[in-house]
Specification:
The complex is a heterodimer of chains A (249) and B (73). With 249 residues, chain A is mainly alpha-helical. Chain A has one domain (7-247). Chain A is built from 5 helices and 4 strands. Chain B has a domain at 27-73. Classes of the chains: A mainly alpha (249), B mainly alpha (73). Chains A and B meet through helix 2 and helix 5 of A and helix 2 and helix 3 of B.
Chain lengths: 249, 73
Amino acid sequence: MEESPLHPFELHNYVPISLGGLDISINKAVIMMWVVVGLISVLMVMAGSARRLVPGKLQSLAEMMVDFIRGIILDTMGKDGMRFFPLIATLFLFILFCNLIGLIPGSYTVTSQIVVTAVFACVVYGLSLVMGFLLHGAKFLGILVPPGTPGWLLPLMVPIELISQLARPISLAVRLFANMTAGHVILGVLFGLAISGGVLIGWLPFAFTIAMNGLEVGIAFIQAYIFTVLTCVYLGDAFHLHGHDDHAH
Amino acid sequence: MPPTQDPFYAGLGQAVRIGTELLAALIVGGGLGWVTDTYLLGTGPWGMVVGLILGAAAGVRNAYRMAQRWPQR
């Protein structure tokens, strides 16, 4: 099998559409996003339709998820953060389902495209900037000066803080993209070894493939969780402006 | 959500988070320095040198801040 392990990430247009020079063709990633959105909607509507006092299986799963996301928000942002619940829950569920569905052989991991993760990261970071300037005005620039910095250190600390601020959306985007891509490349390489190894030795990489798939399920959860937590942390920073560091630990 | 409660996965998540934090700050610092060098000032290699150093400092600072924030279990 002479196939590049990066081959599964290539996208081919099924329905080429061009709108005023803009390429909005429909490809596998777009279809997978529709599938994910549809699946989440159907699951959540079904789970919410019964509204029993003693919840069934689906309802308790949905309640667990909502409670989990609520816990993250309350831990990182406090009560003010609950107004972002719809955004954060949507992000978490979308990323989680993209990651998990991508692990089904033959499907596609949307989050392994850096375009997708970068758009998420930019939206989150942009929102935190807009919120910060709306709430604090020009005082929000004080986020570049850590509390308790002596004056003579300012020319050094402000550039460092500026870079560390600018690194936030990049680390957010790269982390999710790199973890998903790397995981799938490893799975692809191991499975390629299993096929080219034959029965005699091929069972070894095949066993590793299965083990890695199990680990990848964990990674799928963790990455969705980390993305959500960091979203909350960044939005919370815009709210509290240094005030948060005191009771964080 | 059982996997994120598991200490093994929680530790893995923390490690992965801090690693990317270091990398991202370096990319931004070096990138800003490179842009200053090539497009804005033309100051030889020095913009990128300073940018990389500042980026490394920012990365360490980010990682430190992140480790401080991690909930203790």
